Amino acid sequence: MISPRQFSHGYFSRGHFSQRHFSQGHFSQGGFLLGQWCAAVDEVLLSEPQRDALREFMDAELIALRSEIANLEVMTRPISPDNAIGRLSRLEAMNEKSVNEVALRSARERVTRIEVALRRVDDEEFGLCAECAQMIPFARLKSMPGTRLCVDCTELAGG
């Protein structure tokens, strides 16, 4: 279902909604379901205390991730060939290094997603699914701050 705000911003006319939205009942006879939207208007936007809680959570998560990144950067330093640790131990160290490199890349990507979410948290439409414009549950936003899709749209997209 789309909000009048999104309708007035031209989301509908610019093709942001697909045939799937019509088949799922977000629109009726070519128009959006205004009566249903008005009944749920209080549920559409995040409250200020929810936004504050998300900010605090994301700030704490960033601190923890930056500490983890610093540790992983130390653990992913090149292994010196003149370090006499033995052949098998060297292979184990190289394997551990590659595992840590994957963890480092993942942590950096999560930092980027959280930083983007922190910049967007005050946007009026933060927390609305980019695909169907339904409210993303607060628990999902807290566990995945950078998410832009609700659970249903993520599943439909194959994620």
Strand content: under 5%
Number of strands: 2
Which geometry do the CA atoms define? elongated
Gyration radius (Cα, Å) is: 22 Å
Report how far the terminal alpha carbons are from each other: 21 Å
Under CATH, the homologous superfamily of the largest domain reads: DksA, coiled-coil domain
Number of helical elements:
8
What is the N-to-C order of secondary-structure elements (H for helix, E for strand)?
HHEEHHHHHH
Which CATH first-tier class of the largest domain would you pick? Answer: Mainly Alpha
Could you name the key traits of this structure?
2 strands; 2 domains; 159 residues; mainly alpha; 59% helix; 8 helices; two-stranded antiparallel ribbon; Four Helix Bundle (Hemerythrin (Met), subunit A)
Can you describe this structure?
The protein has 159 residues and is mostly helical. It has eight helices and two strands. The chain has a two-stranded antiparallel sheet. A hairpin with a 2-residue loop joins β1 and β2. α5 (48-75) runs antiparallel to α6. The longest helix is centred in the middle third of the chain and has 34 residues, at 87-120. The two termini are 21 Å apart.
